[in-house]
Amino acid sequence: MKKNFSINILIGFIGIFLASCGSESKKGLSIPAVPEVTEKARRTAAIEFLSDLLNSSSNSADIYYKRAKLYLEDERPKEALDDINDAINIKANNGHYYQVKALILRELKEPQQALEAASKAEVLNVESPELFTLLGDLYQQIGQYGKAKLYLNKSLQISPNNGETYFFRGEIAAKQADTATALQLYHQTLNLKPTFLPLYIKFAEVYTALRQYDLALFYTDEGIKHHPKNADLYFKKGITYQRAFQTDSALASYSKAVKLDSSLIQASFSAGYLYFKIRAFRQALPQFAHTLKINPQYPDAKLYLALCLEYTGDFAKAEQYYSEIVAETPQDYRAVNGMWRAKRKQQFDNYLPEDFEMKYDTSSRNKYETPHRNIDTTFRQLQPKTRLNLKPDSSRKN
Asked: Angle CA(172)–CA(211)–CA(182) in degrees, nearest 5?
């Protein structure tokens, strides 16, 4: 009996040993987790693959077409336009090529040219709800609301759950001053397509205009959750904060917008203007300089840059910018006055005091107020010789 007991113990040890060996071997054979591949990475790989095909073989209209769509999704509309034009040059009778061209031109803010391309797609027998929605949007952009409604209704007959279609119907209602209907249609879009970027931008605009700043900020934040690198959402958020008199938050939003998209000069100019209003002229300078670098004709950017240079003591450069404005627009009295001020300050060494710090500090916002006109105190205020004896209203006695 003892012998059997010993054999059982031995078998047990062998079983435990084999089990431990099996678990160790499994550890070596386990497959590591596959790293997550983002949508952008997939697009980049697909674009590289199609580019290799185009480089290694004869031109194919279909390959150009597919790469154009990928470029458009990747927010590279100029490259997309080159590809779709190449596809059309090779094969000019494909309506789907013209539909993609219309989408690209809409992205490039060319609604009239986009409408021509979309109409060509319709002539070539493309009858999809996407095309009808696109035509409806383009017609509403150029103010032809009757045709826009016709195409949007055709789209809804084919695809009643297309969120974008409701959005463009809301755009028409908004432009016709029917805000209640517009908001109702926007919310239908939200239920059907919650990732649609233009919807959140529109919510920000509408609720900011209605002074419902909390709702405007809520929807911009919701949009940022879906599109965290979209500069327009941060720009709209900055406008809302500015209207709500939250200067620091507005400046942070504008700066984020410019960081994400350096070409969004509306944001850099808005940041510069806010800094200028709180007399943080040194902080305003690079904002206006950036705006001018991207667009030398941006309204008032050169004037505010000259003012900031003047207020920070760089009178020679300020005079240079004022002179350029006067040469372009001789009737601009602001620039004319600024030019003579800058000349006078250089002539008489009328520089700012050394302790005139222009650092952004909201606590010292009123420290450097514009001098008020002096009042001559030699004239004493006239006092009435007799006091008026005003009796109380007898009707109020009781």
From this structure: 20
